[in-house]
Amino acid sequence: MTKRYDIAVLPGDGTGPEVVDEGLKVLEAAAQKFDFQLDFTTFNIGGEHYLKTGEVLPETIVAELSARDAIFLGAIGHPDVKPGILEKGILLALRFSLDQYINLRPVKLYEGVSTPLKDKTPDDIDFVVVRENSEGLYAGAGGTLKKGTPDEVAIQESINTRKGVERCIRYAFEYCRKRNKRKKLTLCGKTNVLTFAFDLWERTFNEVAKEYPDIETDYAHVDAICMWMVKNPEWFDVIVTDNMFGDIITDLGAMIQGGMGIAAGGNINPEGVSMFEPIGGSAPKYTGKGIINPLAAISSAQLMLETLGEDSAAAAIEAAVKKTLRDDIKDVGAGKMGFSTSEVGDLVAGYVKNGTGA
Ligand code: IPM
Ligand code: MN
């Protein structure tokens, strides 16, 4: 019997809908070629919907989403909505309520893409960041006292639970083993200053490491990681870190792999419903122009198929993306590709259908 997957689609704001269309085009091509079925249901949430209705994320939608096999998200963020409302109300709310405790962000330089790192090649830049996605500074613990007075106090605490830290670290070890490349896992922390939080992380890391004798382990402070990601990115295979550090180092990662146009990510609940999104945001100034690069969304769709267990289809999408970057696209930046958004989607979908990826 043909396998069938129920996918929720959240096109969202700005260029989100444009890149999602291309992701869906490529997913359809992969489903046809590899003989499985994808049923898409679109939910219109985001800035436009909020401005029209005042609704951010209705409970009924969360319930609908939690009944799907996966979620494919474009972008959330609108220039007319105050910062924080949509990010916290939709993106973080979904990550938390669906307990997507892993944020998986591959940093991979493909042939044909230029990196700002001098003399570095695709052989040097190929690692994955496993970012904890449900705790840390993002948990929202803290508060304000005497707001608006000269004596104002603002407290924002980082929440790190043994359970939360351990499940993230375990995922990272398993991922590193399955990835089967250099088999090296680096813990990124700040044990010299954050002596409570990263003491917990370090002890847990060392304990879990005993169960993975095949994985080499390493530790680096987050500031040093930033330095080495630029100077020696070839040192990394898989990096595991907390929510805030992971947020920061993955923007750096996106830049060294060529830019936001190709940076993909997944918010993963290994036991539940995961959500896949390009990490670049809604890019309002490019909206409706047909010039935004859809490859980040297409690679997020690839991650989605990988997570669903459709490994051959995912590999075909990656091969098609590689070929498009190597042979067709001039530059990954918006408006510089030499092709429109939908032409890039056509190219990738074509290579998937014909099995002619790189
Ligand atoms: C990301 C984004 C989000 C985050 C924002 C929009 C809340 O920067 O996905 O990295 O900080 O996690
Ligand atoms: Mn970010």
Structure description:
The chain has 358 residues and is of the alpha/beta class. It has two domains: 1-103 and 265-358, Isopropylmalate Dehydrogenase, CATH 3.40.718.10; 116-256, Isopropylmalate Dehydrogenase (3-Layer(aba) Sandwich). It has eleven helices and twelve strands. It has helices spanning 16-34, 47-53, 59-66, 85-97, 162-179, 197-209, 222-231, 243-256, 295-308, 311-328, 341-354; strands spanning 3-12, 36-42, 70-75, 102-108, 126-132, 136-145, 153-159, 184-189, 216-221, 238-241, 264-268, 274-278. The strands form two sheets. Strands 2-1-3-12-11-4-5-10-8-9 form a ten-stranded mixed β-sheet, sandwiched between helices. The protein has a two-stranded antiparallel sheet with strand order 6-7. The radius of gyration is 20 Å and the shape is globular. The protein starts with a strand and ends with a helix. The structure holds 3-isopropylmalic acid (IPM) and manganese (II) ion. 3-isopropylmalic acid (IPM) binds at residues 87, 91-92, 247, 279.
Biggest beta-sheet profile: 10 strands, mixed
Mean pLDDT over the residues = 97
Strand percentage, roughly?
Answer: 15-25%
Bound molecules: 3-isopropylmalic acid, manganese (II) ion
What is the percent of helical residues? 40-55%
In DSSP terms (H or I, runs of 4 or more residues), the helix count works out at 11
CATH topology title of the largest domain: Isopropylmalate Dehydrogenase
CATH architectural name of the largest domain: 3-Layer(aba) Sandwich
CATH superfamily of the largest domain: Isopropylmalate Dehydrogenase
| Form type | globular
Along the chain, the helix and strand elements come as EHEHHEHEEEEHEHEHEHEEHHH
Low-confidence stretches: none
Indicate the CATH class of the largest domain.
Answer: Alpha Beta
| Alpha-carbon distance between the two ends | 30 Å
